[in-house]
Amino acid sequence: MKNYSYLLWTLLFLVLLGSIPLLLYNRGVDVARIVGFIVLIAIVVALWYWRYAIRKKSPRNERIKLDANDLFWLEKNISFYKKLSKNDRKIFLDRIGIFLADIQITEVDKEVADKETCFYVASSAIIAYWGLPYWNYGELQEVLVYPTNFNMDNTLNELGRVGGKVHHGGLMDKTMILSFPELKKGFQINNDKKNVGVHEFSHLLDKSDGSIDGIPPFMEKEDRKIWLNIMEREMSKINSDSSTIPDYGGVDKTEFFAVVSEYYKECPKLLKIKHIELYNVLHSYYNQPKIKKG
Ligand SMILES: [Zn+2]
Fold first, then answer.
1. Do 203 and 166 touch, CB atoms closer than 8 A?
2. Is the entire prediction scored with pTM above 0.85?
3. Mean pLDDT per 10-residue section of the chain, whose length is 294 residues
4. Residue 127 Cα, ligand 1 centroid: separation in angstroms?
5. 262 Cα–ligand 1 center, Å
């Protein structure tokens, strides 16, 4: 519904403004002065209200500025960040600031999400999209962080198998869920090829072309063919226990993409040694090479 309240304001101003010359003519300067003063006050109030309403409708989303303590924390806890060059670190921090300004992070058992949690979530996003020239998070509005793992129906369960989830369609379409213990573990253990935050944001990346199908979005036609071939081969190796890729990557194509993205981001050197073809295609994808074939 459109808001026509401004029409009422405008009408009121016009009536008051119009009354000033009439008052000047009929009753004298003093009353006109008072009316003029009222009009002035009304204009100031209206402008203030308008500004407030606009801000309320579309928050400014100014990027969050990080302080020295934050940088220290990132250096200590996010090894991906630690390994970056000085220039790349600047980009990383910039993206963290934008992420934190744009995406609501909610810890379901706390009134306000801990800074540590926010940094783990944001770092997961930045790492998953790292190297891509496009890096918006689509429709994502909120990341819910649970204090434990959960079941497929999103109910809390300490022994639950689910540590993270991206929804596609339905009421939760704009929401991601992560389990805090799993999220933290992903950053504490740096050599197990696993990071649930990066995993879920890789699904989100997969979703950005409209479908979660295990095919990296915006991949060129030729590269898609190569990808599908490699994926088929690597998945059958996983399912016959002759691969260094975690078993979960053999479940289906969508999990394959998320699992190998985790692997590539966390242990690129190992992936290069063990799965050179897969490494090459991921390396090329995440760096968006400028030179096109043919
Ligand atoms: Zn998954």
1. yes
2. no
3. 60 75 74 78 78 56 90 96 95 95 94 96 97 85 92 82 80 91 95 95 93 91 94 97 96 97 95 95 76 42
4. 16
5. 10
